[in-house]
Amino acid sequence: MYHLIIADDKDKICEGIANLFPWEQIGFQVIGQFFNGQDVLKFLDEKAPLVDVILCDIRMPGMDGLEVCRRIAAWPNIRIVLFSSYKNYEYFRKALQYRITDYLLKPINYKDLTQCFEKIREELDRERGKDQSCSDMYEPTLLPGGSSRLTDEVIQYLNENYQNASLEKAATYVGLSPSYLSRLFKEKSGIGFSDLLLKIRMEKAATMLSDIRYKSYEIAHRVGYDNPKNFSRAFKAYYGVSPSEYRRESTKRNANANPNAVENTSTGAGTDSHTDTGGINA
């Protein structure tokens, strides 16, 4: 097992990469997480012989990743992988001067990260004379457990931002690529991202339909549909009844449960002129 440390000034990204990626399945163990370059160097001063690879962000306060690269020249056996959200040629040019092994872009792509570290593992195996026939044991799979924080954060994001939520925005929120987040979230939660988003939107809409103060077109907008007809068809596909039918049944149930608290709705309060037709366009 080879040893890896990770540095990124955004703790959510640093912890996400450390805890969610299947490091042990490809032969690595994360032994340190740092949020600035100074702490990386302090750790290396004491424990450099234990470190095989550094995965380091470029843009960090105080001391950036390029300066870290320059200063760890004293430990030539340590491999360096830089990552950044900036497609900046000057960064890349400088990085090449410091014998970096690879340069990855944020948000981290699962396939790119896997290929990068599988290559590093193979190089380390050759250098240390390890048997390559055992490489099959490193088949990358998702780690069981350990991702409840991710699923909780995504669910919280959807509950708070369901009106304008998207997979791309959620991926940026948790610091992963959209494809990796989609795969990992479904694996760990048992439901696809888009299915959960639809579920939350429809349940929020159903709650608002039970309140006659909200008109149907207002509800459509609140749950992320610009076109009320698209919302109506999505709602009917989900619940089997149109929004207006759901509202009538809900009003009846409320009237039966609280006959003295429900006002007379025959005046048309809470209704609108939009028909319940159209196509789903979420």
Structural notes for this entry:
This protein has a five-stranded parallel β-sheet with strand order 2-1-3-4-5, sandwiched between helices. Helix 2 packs parallel to helix 3 (about 65-70) and helix 10 (about 215-220) packs across helix 11 (about 230-240). About 30% of the residues are buried. The model is unreliable at about 130-145, about 260-270 and about 275-280 (pLDDT under 50). The longest helix is centred in the middle third of the chain and has 18 residues, at about 110-125. It is an alpha/beta fold. About 50% of the residues lie in helices and about 10% in strands.
Put the structure in a nutshell.
The protein is an alpha/beta fold and 282 residues long. The chain has helices spanning 11-20, 37-47, 65-71, 89-97, 110-127, 148-161, 167-174, 178-189, 193-209, 216-222, 228-239, 243-257, and strands at 2-7, 28-34, 53-57, 79-84, 102-105. The protein has twelve helices and five strands.
**Rough outline:** elongated
N-to-C SSE string, H for helix and E for strand: EHEHEHEHEHHHHHHHH
How far the N terminus sits from the C terminus, by CA atoms, comes to 45 Å
* DSSP, total strands: 5
Oligomer: single chain
In the sheet with the most strands, the strands line up as 2-1-3-4-5
Number of contiguous helices: 12
List keywords for this structure.
50% helix, 5-stranded parallel β-sheet, single chain, alpha/beta, 12 helices, 282 residues
Secondary structure: elements and pairs:
Blueprint: E1 2-7, H1 11-20, E2 28-34, H2 37-47, E3 53-57, H3 65-71, E4 79-84, H4 89-97, E5 102-105, H5 110-127, H6 148-161, H7 167-174, H8 178-189, H9 193-209, H10 216-222, H11 228-239, H12 243-257
Parallel strand pairs: 1-2, 1-3, 3-4, 4-5
Helix pairs in contact: 2-3, 10-11
